[in-house]
Inverse folding.
C-alpha cells in the first residue's frame, strides 16, 4: 500500500521569524500523526531555520522550486546542490511557476533530472486551466505534462516520485474539484499515462496527491479516493491547526 503523503506549500508567505512561529505551533501536533509522510515547503530563506527545527523529527522539508544547473551565472536562482543541503523534496512544475515564470514541460523535465541526481524527491505538479477543461482538453494537457516531465527516466525511479494533480481553477479559489472527479483524472489520465510509459507496477507505486483548496472539512473525502494518496496544501498549510487537521485526516484514512 502507498503511504499517505501531506505537503504544505507555503508559496511566498512567511518571513524567517513567521516561519519559526508557525513551525513551533504545528510541530507537536504533526509529530503526533503517525503513518503519514509529512513535508513542509517554506520559501528559500526559511529552509535553513526550518531544517534546524525539524532535525530529529520525521517531518520532511521541501523547496518550492530550483534551477537545474549545479551552479553558475544564473542571477537570482537556487541550485539543486543548495536545496539538497537542507531539503529532501522539491516541488517542480507548479502551475504558478508555469503561468508566471515561464516554466515549460522541458524545463520541468530538466529540473526532475537534476533533482534525481541530487537524491531529491520531486513533487511534480500537473493540472489543467479552466479554459482547457471547458474546451475538453483536460486529458490532452495532463498527458502532455506527465510525458513532458517524466519521459526517459527508469521505471523504478519514477515509482519513488510524488506527483500532484492540481487543477489550476481549484488553486487558491476555495473551489476544490469534487473528490470523484479528481480521482478520475488521477486514475484515467495520470496513472494510465504512467502505466503506458513505465508499466503497471510503477504506475501503481507512484504517490499521487490532489491539490487545490484542500481544507480540513474536505480533506477526508479526497483521502478516501482509491487513487489519491494525499494532498499538496497551499492556504490551509499557513495555519498550524488546519494543516495538522489535514494530516490527521490522512492518518484517519489509513
Ligand atoms: P491551495 O493551493 O491549497 O491554496 O488551493 C494549493 C497549491 O497550489 O499547492
Amino acid at each position: 500500500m502507498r503511504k499517505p503523503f501531506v505537503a504544505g506549500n507555503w508559496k511566498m508567505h512567511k518571513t524567517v521569524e513567521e516561519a519559526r512561529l508557525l513551525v513551533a505551533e504545528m510541530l507537536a501536533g504533526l509529530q503526533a500523526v503517525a503513518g503519514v509522510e509529512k513535508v513542509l515547503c517554506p520559501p528559500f530563506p526559511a529552509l535553513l531555520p526550518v531544517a534546524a527545527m525539524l532535525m530529529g523529527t520525521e517531518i520532511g522539508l521541501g523547496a518550492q522550486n530550483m534551477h537545474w544547473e549545479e551552479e553558475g551565472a544564473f542571477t537570482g536562482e537556487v541550485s539543486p546542490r543548495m536545496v539538497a543541503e537542507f531539503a529532501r523534496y522539491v516541488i517542480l512544475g507548479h502551475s504558478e511557476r508555469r503561468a508566471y515564470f515561464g516554466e515549460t514541460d522541458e524545463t520541468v523535465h530538466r529540473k526532475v533530472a537534476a533533482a534525481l541526481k541530487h537524491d531529491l524527491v520531486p513533487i511534480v505538479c500537473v493540472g489543467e486551466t479552466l479554459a482547457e477543461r471547458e474546451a475538453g482538453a483536460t486529458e490532452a494537457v495532463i498527458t502532455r505534462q506527465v510525458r513532458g516531465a517524466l519521459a526517459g527516466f527508469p521505471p523504478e525511479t519514477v515509482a519513488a516520485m510524488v506527483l500532484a494533480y492540481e487543477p489550476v481553477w481549484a488553486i487558491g479559489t476555495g473551489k476544490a474539484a469534487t473528490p470523484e472527479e479528481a480521482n478520475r483524472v488521477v486514475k484515467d489520465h495520470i496513472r494510465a499515462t504512467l502505466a503506458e510509459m513505465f508499466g503497471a507496477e510503477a504506475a501503481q507505486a507512484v504517490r499521487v496527491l490532489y491539490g487545490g483548496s484542500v481544507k480540513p472539512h474536505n480533506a477526508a473525502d479526497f483521502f478516501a479516493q482509491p487513487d489519491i494518496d494525499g494532498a499538496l496544501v497551499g492556504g490551509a498549510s499557513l495555519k498550524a491547526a488546519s494543516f495538522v487537521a489535514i494530516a490527521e485526516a490522512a492518518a484517519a484514512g489509513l
Residues 9, 166, 171-172, 211-214, 232-236 surround 2-phosphoglycolic acid (CB under 6 Å). The chain has one domain: 5-252. The chain has a mean pLDDT of 97.
